[in-house]
Design brief:
The chain is α+β, with helices and mostly antiparallel strands and about 180 residues long. The chain is built from three helices and nine strands. It folds into two domains: about 35 residues, no CATH class; about 120 residues, no CATH class. Helices cover about 25% and strands about 25% of the residues. A five-stranded antiparallel sheet has the order 5-6-7-8-9. A two-stranded antiparallel sheet has the order 1-2. A two-stranded antiparallel sheet has the order 3-4. Helix 2 packs across helix 3.
């Protein structure tokens, strides 16, 4: 292993096998090793997201996704399309990313209500006092939201697309802030 870092003061070779110990400023941190084509190895810091009290695979969420998977077309008697397994898998993955992002940023997390709309899209819904946030998993490439803080569609609702994790973080902070500072 060739070390490419210029500041190697805290690195020490621990034994004849070439294992390296990292000094105290790296204590408790985790790294991934990536071997390069030229034989050198790059250490990359890895963020380990701690589990909250209610994990993303909680029984309630698993049951919700199982219910969605069991739907058939016309599930509501009005011709609505059932979500596909691919759409449900995409929603599970999106929810895991949203959850990990919230936990990593110390943002309040409550499991969402998981449902489906008439187009077979998966919806994730959260409520807090007078505010609601609905996330629509529209396709494998498109996630949108609707936030509402009243009933007037023109002045008390906003919709848009979630492109980056930070978009969801901003929406979560809005959802859980005090009513006096909403919007």
């Amino acid at each position: 292993m060739e070390l490419l870092e210029s500041n190697l003061d805290d690195l020490r070779v621990a034994d004849r096998k070439g294992r390296v110990t990292l000094g105290s400023k790296y204590a408790g941190k985790r790294f991934a090793l990536h071997e390069q084509a030229d034989g050198s190895t790059v250490l990359t810091p890895v963020l380990v997201v701690p589990e909250s009290e209610q994990s993303i695979t909680s029984r309630q969420l698993n049951d919700s996704f199982l219910l969605l998977a069991g739907l058939t077309n016309n599930w509501d008697g009005h011709g609505s399309i059932a979500p596909t397994n691919a759409m449900i898998d995409c929603a599970r993955e999106a929810l895991a990313l949203l959850h990990a992002g919230a936990v990593a940023r110390n943002i309040h997390w409550i499991d969402p209500h998981v449902g489906s709309n008439e187009r077979g899209q998966v919806t994730l819904e959260w409520w807090h006092h007078s505010r609601s946030l609905t996330v629509f998993i529209r396709s494998l490439d498109k996630i949108e939201y609707l936030k509402a803080w009243g009933q007037n569609i023109d002045s008390q609702m906003e919709d848009g697309e979630i492109v980056r994790l930070n978009d969801f973080v901003t929406l979560s902070r809005w959802l859980y802030q005090s009513d006096a500072s909403a919007m």
